[in-house]
Structures are given as structure tokens and as C-alpha cells.
Amino acid sequence: MKVLVAAPLHEKAFEVLKNAGLEVVYEEYPREEKLLELVKDVDAIIVRSKPKVTRKVIENAPKLKVIGRAGVGLDNIDLEAAKERGIQVLNAPAAASRSTAELVFALLLTVARKVAFADRKMREGVWAKKQALGLELEGKTIGIIGFGRIGYNVAKIANAFGMRILLYDPYPNEERAKEVSGTFVDLETLLRESDVVTLHVPLLPSTKYLINEEKLKLMKPTAILINAARGGIVEERALVKALQEGWIYGAALDVFEEEPLPKDHPLTKLDNVVLTPHIGASTREAQERAGVEIAEKVIQALKS
User: Fold this and answer.
1) Per the residue annotation, which of 10, 48, 230, 289 is the catalytic one?
2) Within its chain, how far is the Cα of 106 from the centroid?
3) 89: burial class by Cβ within 10 Å (0-12, 13-18, 19+)?
4) End-to-end CA, the chain
5) CB 250 within 8 A of CB 111
6) Non-local CB neighbours of 206 within 8 Å, separated by 6+ positions
7) Residue 271 CB: number of other CB atoms within 10 A?
8) What pLDDT digit, counting tens, does each position of 98-156 carry?
9) Measuring CA to CA, which of 28, 115, 120, 211 is 20 to 30 A from 77?
10) d(CA 144, CA 172)
11) Is position 136 annotated as part of the catalytic site?
């Protein structure tokens, strides 16, 4: 059987695939025109957040049985078209949970203590000690929207910082919440009471612009918003306004409505926002886990 790996994977993942006797073709992030050629005779495709596996791609792959995503989100795969063909769609949801949670706190501390701002000023030759007055985390309230694997890991770290934990999830897991001393509340209560709001939900029609102008106005003027989930969950135009007008203290974003982020985007002009290029899963450990996990799942699916 033949597998197309259309995105970078850890070398151990390639070893797992080859040791299973699979023919492996590797093409990093091919454009759709190239992808349409590559899929004509493959039994499985493995991707990351790119490339997009559209209906057109699926229809051009008559032998396709499995689509694997080395990561969590499946928004770059046409799930309806795959379902119609009986194609299994697999992901590796646990692989990046810890790495993303740790990035959330890296971003949070960077905003709270104005680390990126201070670094920029130092490089400009400015000793901006007075302007770099920040906030402590101990005793503050963190609101976690989406209490799955990543949200749970965020809560564990928040506990170590001595933070109060509020949770919002349509499917509350009370037992797991007790493990981290978290309390489930409604979304408005979370937004009003939290000093930090962090997002960990998938991008669905129901979560598109979940954080909009109305929601941002509910937040404290001293609050920090973190988004390391998906770009479309936050309405960027409204966030820019909130940051410019001081509705909230600051924000940190690892994901954006358009990726890569356009060079002259208004967010890049603001000192109270920290931006990273979708690196939640970008650790050596997470990449190895994701690659090996999806390789093993694809092999299992093909064999069955």
C-alpha cells in the first residue's frame, strides 16, 4: 500500500510507516494542482494544518481509504466528502496538549510582564523600566474556555501559579474539574470575572467569532486574552479596537483568521499584543508524538 505524506513529520514517523511495509511518498505542502496528481494512486494521506484535503482532492483519489492529520484540528479536511466515500479521518489529539498549554503560559507571562515590549525597547537602546510595569499571576482568576485535553493541562499549570480557575465547556467534566480545583460557570460569568481568558475550542460554526465586540466589552480592563486554538474564534477587527481603546490590558495570539498573518495587519502595530506564528505544537517532543501516533493509526486503519 502507498501513503502520501504531504507535510513534515518526525523522522521516527517515517520509520514506523516504512517498517510496516508501506510505500511512502513525501511532498512537503504541495499546491492543490500537484496534490491532485499525487493522490491518484495512494491508499492514505497524512497532512498537518496544510495542505487542504478538499472534495476535489478526495474525488481524485479512487484508492483513498484513510486521511491522517498529525495534530488536532480537522478544519483543512472536507469531512463530508470523506464520509460520503467511507474514508476514515484520523488525528492525534493528545500529542500537542502539553506543548500548547506551556505556550499559553509563555504567552501569558510575556504579556503580563511586558517581556516582548521590554526586549524591543532594549534593542532600541531605551531603558524602559517604568513603562514595563506588569502584573503578577498568583491570586488572579484564569478563565478556560474549552476544557478538553489542552484546557486541562492549562488548568494544571495555573494551579501551580496559585490561580483561581473558572471553566466553560458545553460538556462539563466535573470529575476532571475537581482534579484542578476548577469551577464551571456560564460564559458571561467567566468573561466578567477572569483576569485571563484563554481559548481551547475547535473552530466550528458555533464557535466562529465566539469572542466578538460584545464579549470583549464584558471583560475587565485589566484582563488578558490568549488564543492558541484557531484564528476565527476571535473577531480580529473587534480585538484590535479593544486593544487600541483599552477595553482589555492585552492579548497574545498564536493563531489568526488569515495565516500567515498579513505583513501590515493592525495587530502588528500594537504594543499590548504578542504574536507568534501558530507554534502551539512546535516542540520536538510534540512533533515526535504526533508523527508516531498518526503513523501508527494510519497503519492500523489500513490493515483493518
Assistant:
1) 230
2) 14
3) middle
4) 13
5) yes
6) none
7) 13
8) 999 999 999 999 999 999 999 999 999 999 999 999 999 999 999 999 999 999 999 99
9) 211
10) 12
11) no
Q: Which residues of 293-302 are buried (b: 16+ CB within 10 A; e: fewer)?
A: bbbbbbbebb
**Residues whose CB falls within 8 Å of the CB of residue 115, separated by 6 or more in sequence, listed in order:** 109
Alpha carbon separation from 20 to 5, 63, 180 (Å, rounded):
15, 19, 40
Q: Give me the amino acid identity at 170.
A: P
Three-state secondary-structure class, residue 227: strand
Q: What is the pTM of this model?
A: 0.89
Residue 84: active-site member: no
Average pLDDT of the chain is 97
Active site residue 200: no
Catalytic residue among 11, 84, 258, 259: 259
CB 151 within 8 A of CB 144: yes
Q: Are 167 and 184 in contact (CB under 8 A)?
A: yes
Q: What are residue 53's phi and psi, to 5 degrees?
A: -100, 90
* H helices, E strands: number in the chain: 12, 12
User: Which one is catalytic: 85, 102, 278, 288?
Assistant: 278
Could you give the strand order of the β-sheet that contains 164-168, starting from the edge strand earlier in sequence? 182-184, 164-168, 141-145, 196-199, 224-227, 250-253, 273-275
> All 3 cell numbers of residue 158?
495555573
